[in-house]
Amino acid sequence: MRRITRRTALAVTAGAVAAPAVSTATAEAADTTTAASQERQVTSGRNPVLRTDLLTRVTPRNNWLVTAVALQYSYRVDLRGGVIPPSTFQVKATVGGQTAARTVTRVYSSTTAEVDDRSRPGRPGDRLIIELDPNDSNARAAGTDPLPLDRAYSVRQVADVHTPEGEPVLKAGPFASRNDDVITPVVDDFTAGSFTDSAGFELDFRLHQPEGFVRNPQTRKRYPLVVTLHGGGEVADNNMTQLTSNRIAVTFAKPERQRRDPAFVLSPQIPLPRPMDGPDGTDWTDAKVQAALIELIDTFVSEYSRYVDTARLYLVGLSSGGRGIYSLLAKRPDGFAAALPTAGWGDPATMDRITDIPIWADHSVDDPVVPYREGRFGKPGTWTLMNALETAGARVTRGEWANDLPKAEFEARSRALLRQARATRSHVLFTSYTPGTTPVNPHLAWAQTYENDVVIDWLFEQSR
Questions:
Q1: Sheet of 153-157, strands arranged across
Q2: Alpha-carbon torsion angle 375, 380, 384, 386, nearest 10
Q3: Given Cys at both, which of 75, 134, 197, 314 links 295, Cβ 3.0 to 4.6 Å?
């Protein structure tokens, strides 16, 4: 059973409004019965588990991880100020045919199946959240494709839980529960779809729709459209890893960003077998793929013409997605308001066509996969493309700093670069990352890009 979606929640709410009212006497009787049941449960420690869910998270650098387990109980779990030691529960994961323990880091009660990132998490509720160490070797939720996680985790309580006064709250037992479902915040709010173009080529895609549009499809409000282009590692037939391998799409759909900048987020995925007919052997420049992508964007804008702000179409992409951006902008220079290409490469001869488009590019100087200057497949990297843009007449504002700075310092550097660009009326910015400072792999320059509120705020400020 999947988590209740926003649409389902709205339908449930609408049904609740139309339901007959419960009398005051009936409600009071129900409250009395519930209180008595809670008291019996507390004094006995018996509180059956109703369901078990895995909670996963798309992270900036480590991709898709199982970060917690949520247990839902029959009754509210009230620790009365007490805490649950991590050793109270044993969690095992069976992944790739291998069963191994997960490390429990903290346990707390909650009213919802969500991880609480506060230093003192939790509140009395009918759920327990069992957080797991994201550095466990078996924490991954996907390899090339999503891992089969249904019933893959077992959870067993091995020690009794008491209040600080010694009253039993939850009794240990011999039985383990297995997960009923997998919950991935933000990703679960994307709908899945596919599009077949006029030549018969099919692209799968995922779509996030703004809350205001979902609640009121008759709205007159128009929203920006963000199109995300994944990298070469996400070419697949699962219609998932373009969301979960990197936070490129999640960045624009997460609730805090949607509250500031509500937008449609369209995330297509290139299918297998891998098309490699492009002029430099990459995917988003493959003739079939690019034609389908252009037609998908045009068709989406046409079908949602009442709701899409056509002056605010944005392209964001990483690695071969960055390559796709440079190619697509050159073909459609009047189609997009701004772009964020990371670790990309392209054709310097086409840069004179895109001098008027706001671009914030970034690249690690020591990138071994798409070299900073030389690029890939005979097409130069970002440094060379920025030089070509400058030669063609664009004013490029450049900055270089470490890619492992704390978020506040990283954003302060970005803010200073933006001030410099505005002072010189430059709409092309280029951030280089000092060698040896991009964690995990120098190619993964984008881990900070999509966590950088300065850059994302700048993007949404752009309009044709």
A1: 98-102, 89-95, 153-157, 177-178
A2: -90
A3: 197
pLDDT digit string, tens, across residues 334-351: 999 999 999 999 999 999
CA 458 – CA 456 distance, rounded (Å): 5
Q: What is the pLDDT of residue 25?
A: 46
Condensed to tens digits (0 to 9), the pLDDT of residues 103-147 reads 999 999 999 999 999 988 988 999 999 999 999 999 999 988 999
Q: What is the Cα gyration radius of the chain?
A: 25
Question: Hey, CA dihedral for 215, 217, 219, 223, is it positive or negative?
Answer: positive
Structure tokens at 22: 């419960």
Confidence (pLDDT) at 219: 86
**pLDDT of 383-395, one tens digit each?**
999 999 999 999 9
Question: Per-residue pLDDT for 37 more than 80?
Answer: no
CB 398 within 8 A of CB 432: yes
pLDDT of 404: 96
Taking alpha carbons only, the member of 307, 325, 134 closest to residue 227 is: 325
> Rounded distance, CA 56 to CA 46, Å?
28
Strands 161-162 and 177-178: unpaired
- Neighbouring residues of 381: CB distance < 8 A, sequence distance ≥ 6: 344, 345, 363, 367, 370, 371, 372, 373, 374, 375
pLDDT band at residue 97, thresholds of 50, 70 and 90? confident
Q: Report the C-alpha gap between 72 and 60 in whole angstroms.
A: 29
